Amino acid sequence: MASVERMPAPTNSKLLPRLAGLISGEWRYVPILVAIVLIWAFFGLLDPKFLSPRNLSNLSLQCIVTAMLALGLVPVLIIRQIDMSVAAISAVAATIAGQLLIAQNVSVWLAIAAGIAFGALVGLVQGRWITWTRTPAFLVTFGVSLVLAAVQLKLLPATGQINLFGTDITFLAGSYIDKTLSWGLAAVALVIFVAFRYASLTDARKAGLDRTATKHVVAPALIVAAVLVVVISALNRHNGVPVAVLILFTAIIVLSYIGKHTRFGIYLYATGANPSAVVRAGIKVDRIRMTAFVVCGAFAAFGGILAASRLLGVSAQSSGMGTLLLEAITAAVVGGTSLFGGRGSPWSALFGALAITSISNGIDLLGLGTEVKLATQGIVLVLATSVDSLAHRFAGGRQED
Amino acid sequence: MKSIVRGVLAAAAFALAATGSAYALDPDPELTGTVHLMLPNFTTVRFVEKDGPAFVEAMKKYAPNIKVEIANGESNPSLQQQQVEAAITGDTKAIVLIAADPSLASASLFAAEKAGVPLIAYEHEASGGPVTYYTQFGALKVGQAQGKNAAAALSEGGPYKIARLYGNKGDFYTRATKEGQDEHLQPLIDAGKIEVVCEDYVPNWNPSEAQRIMEQCLTKTDGDFQAIVASNDGTAEGALAALVSQGLQGQIKILGGQDANVATLQNILLGLQHGTVLKNYPMLADSAARLVVAAIKKQQPEEGHINGEFDNGYGKIPTAFIDVTMIDQSNVGDVVEAGVWNWADVCTGAAANTQTCKDNAGK
Q: What's the burial of B303, exposed, middle or buried (CB within 10 Å: 0-12/13-18/19+)?
């Protein structure tokens, strides 16, 4: 690792670096999945309603916006950058979509597309500026977030808010998939998953690696099938699988595919892990970086539109305000995407968002109040980033991917 | 026909109320110089869009030769302090201060007193220093109106189960609003006619937080309650979003509300929320203008204008508490009459198809 500082592990134990290596490597999701199980067990014991189908349905919708923003942040974090403007982009995109829908009577698809296009454009401008001037992304994107807050105030009507009740855009966060259809989609997803595992097994064997079909295809397929059955039957016992959840999963799967199986994805991880080597290999690193910001802006914009669809409105007070930015960054990092670049995957956005939303969901269910909410959010942020930093440090700053 | 009669009656009632509050104060062309209005931020839209212009209007009415300068503190108390100091240096005649942060206005208050500039605190309770007059709607009055309305809506039948949403925890405004609500609701709770099944404070009055809190309340109770009492319109809108996502809109009443947000007025017209508390901004701005004129002339304000006092931690300030109006489906027009919004603002989106909007199309 060229530019990341190497810190010697302070103990002589060999267990610690190995564990840290695993956590920053192939066991990346173990801490977050254990955390989710613990959080669910904790709240489930305090109030069994936490695990009721109705609450799981709530939870799936409550985590969507954070997950969508975190998903966009993943490629930016992988290239060792940050985007502080995601919450502001989400607010402006929602305002644009809402104004087009209400004031201009534009069709709902065009309104959504315009919002997403705006987000991508902001990402492009930010990415170009950062790669051209070499200003730290933290400062540029923070500055842009202030400008965007001003833009939102200008774009909102004089009344300061847009009411989306009864408009077509509410289907995004307010509609559910037909119960039989969701089983069909799950079956298709499983078949695709098995096909991918099988393809990667044959590739590995061609490369001379000794891999068994049981461990490499059958076991993972059984786990995925079990998760799908549990999730879908739980959600079907309430209203069904929300359309927004389907959109999120599709986005995650597409981004995962791009990350693992395309040249762009491989360059993306390489840019984060070892930028100078990538430059020496003759790859246009600036283009990769700009693309990461464009993806981030587009997902932030879509997240904002989803938020508006869920809250049935847009206003300066509700959109992109509060802790959304911090929650999105926390979600990505707590889910296993490293702040040190090169490591992480789209799934971390889902796991992280699920974990932090589960906490606020449980606190609200128990009615524990504002103090507990603030304190827990802070502690989770510190712990999550610390696990990442410690794993990085004890693994000797090695990059695993 | 019936609605025309009702409209005329409402207009007449409002005209009476308006003349009643404006007293007979003649324009005084002798007064000259500059008066400063210090706005707190850009995020609370009403201050920029409504209170500011209404204050300029009112000053024109009472002192046509006084110039009004408007500055905006951009949510930053130290910026606002600089603006106050600049106004004093510029020889201002009086300052109307809507504190950017009510608890951090003390330095501005002392600076104005030292320079002998009258300072009128407006809406936000500027605390910890000398203030000439204070004019406000009063969170207590708002809470009382909400509580009275909710108690009336829950008086027949029952007993009822309700959920309560308060404002940001720790705010004076939140505390006073709750106190006002309790005056009417606590007796019913004590008598067993109302049972509060969920109650929580909403961080920063954020509608998204209110939505999640209500979704969790629905989970906790399996949706078994009949009404929600929300402390302002933003939190009521969040509560409505929670009901809509569970298909319960219209089945659980939304009571309370304040600000007469456009989205809320639309929800009231659509029958999704019961009512809201209207704060007639031009009336407050008018009160401030009259207090400014009295302070500059070093005279007492007209009889009855100051109707109470407010302890801001430094002393008891002579205060004008301005009346609030309860709005429901029958008198949404009052909001338009008050000049807060016009029908074109209210009648957009789904609300455009309601009878009230059709009756008032083109007005």
A: exposed
